[in-house]
Each structure stands twice: as structure tokens, then as C-alpha cells.
Amino acid sequence: MSEVSGVYDETSTDSADRLDLIVVGAASRDVTPDDPRGWRLGGAVSYVSLAAARLGLRVGCVMGVDEPAAGAAELNLLEAAGVLVHRVWLEHGPVFENIERDGRRRQRWLSKSDTVPVTALPGEWRRARGWLLGPVAGELAAEWAEVAAARADACVAVGWQGLLREFAADGWVRRVDPGSSPLLEAAGLVCASVNDVAAGASLGELRGFAPRAALVLTAGAGGGVALRGAATARYGAIAAPRVVDPTGAGDVFLAALMAAWLLTGELATARALRFAAAASSCAVEGAGLAGVPTRGQVAARLHSTGSDAGPARGR
After folding, report:
1. CATH homologous superfamily of 3-303
2. Which contiguous run of DSSP H or E holds residue 282?
3. Which of 113, 150, 223, 229 lies 20 to 30 angstroms, CA to CA, from 31?
4. In what helix (H) or strand (E) does residue 259 lie, and over which residues does it extend?
5. Chain centroid, CA 81 distance in Å
6. How far apart are CA 310 and CA 126, in angstroms?
7. What is the pLDDT of residues 165-186, one digit of tens each?
8. Helix %, strand %, coil % for the chain, to 5?
9. What is d(CA 27, CA 280) in angstroms, rounded to the nearest whole number?
């Protein structure tokens, strides 16, 4: 690989006008004893890009990577699904150890993340209508909000998790109180787990941080709640026959909501939430990115529950 202005493998932008969605964030390396490398590729940018492509979107991915992540075999999965992966060199990328206990996750951090600069974005990709900003370690600066919301008809989604954590000196990742952010203010869709949000925060308070957005709070097997304007709607989870690895299920859920929004115009409607719940239930049945489902798998899961197949490309 060659490095050009901090960017690995300069990506062709010939098909930029045909992209539905640009996904931005830093790829994490998640520590695991089940891989000979000692880690798997993770992070919202990885899971969302692969899921969105497998669900029918044409995806461009601006992915911050440290040296080991830049050559990860998992990137072949993204490229095989049609994702245009634009690698951005990070001297330091995020590295996490995920610890699951009693259905809850705690994280230790082994490395923080450098910033993914706006200047790394291929120029032709700036015209895209769909944007999903998925920070995992606060690596996306405010300028990304301006780029994503530049079009009047832009569809901008934000994964809130990476803005709700701090890297404590004792090595643990800790929750922080939600606060204002240009990323949230630019978003039309914001998604977070109830486990990411500080206890005691009211729905009204959370809604105020993303005033233009449909806000979806997921609660795993407990379903979740969607806030759209003054309306509040609860949705149920779809049980998976087996659970192998819950990592990335929330990112797949968000990718499915984004697919529904871009393909049908349905923003966190009851049908879109059902589609996303089916996608996330499929995701937990495999380890890491290998568990990210195809559209056919999601359709089969929906059919098993008596629901329709969900959004389809109407072009």
C-alpha cells in the first residue's frame, strides 16, 4: 500500500453519482481470543457499510484505519458486497475489549483514535444525498456535519454511541452525559442504545439534543422506543433462534433504518422499525462482520413473523 496525503489506496470516484450512502468513521479493532490476530475488525463504519450494502444500498465508506486494520481480511467482505472503501490512515485507531456480563456490555480501551479529517473525503462524494456518521471514539469533528447536510434534501443519520463515552484513565470506557453537538443538530435520524445514555435522562431532554431528528433508543431484547416530532412509539424486538455474538447488532439496526429511509422515504415508521429489528436479530447469529445479514435473510426472518419483506429499491 502507498500513502498519499494520509490516505491509503486512493479510491476511484467514477461511480460517485450512483452512491446512495456515504458512511464515515474509524474502524475499531475488537479484542477476541477466537481470532489468530487477537482481534476482529469492528466499529460502526464497518458494520453499517456492510449491512447497508447487503440491504440494497450503493455505499461509499470513508474509513479511518490504523496499520493493522488497513489490511484486515474483513474489508474483502465489504468490497465483495459492492462497498467502495476509502481507507484513511490513522497513526492511532480505536482498540476495544468488549466484556459481556448478564446481558450487559462493558468496554476497556487499549487505544484511542485520531481524527478522521474532512479533507480525506473524495471530492465527488460530497454530492451524495445519504450520510451516516458513525463515530466510535469522538473521531468526527463538527465539519462533517456541514459536509453531510450541504444538500437541502440530505438524509443524515448519526450513531450517537461514540459521542456518549469517555476513555477513563483506568482503562475503562465510561458513559458521559449527553450534550449538544453539530452532528446531532444536522441529523434527521439518531440512534443509540439505552445502555449508552446516562441513567435518569428524560426522553424530552434527549430529544432536545437532536431537534430535527427521529430519535430511536434501542433496548436489545426489550425492543425500544422511537420519537418522531411529538409522537412516541414503542416497538418490539424479534428474537433470534440463537445468539453467537451481539457485537454490531445496533449498527445493523441503524443501517436497516437508513436503508428504509433512503429506499422508501419511511423514517423510523412502524414498518421500518420492524425491518430493522429483523436485521439486528439476524446479525447476532454470527461472529463479527460474518453475522451481518443479506436482504434475503432479513426477508426470511420477517416472513417467519408474518411480516412483509420490508423496503426494496424502487429504481
Report:
1. Ribokinase (3.40.1190.20)
2. helix 270-283
3. 223
4. helix 249-264
5. 16
6. 29
7. 999 999 999 989 899 999 999 9
8. 30, 25, 40
9. 20
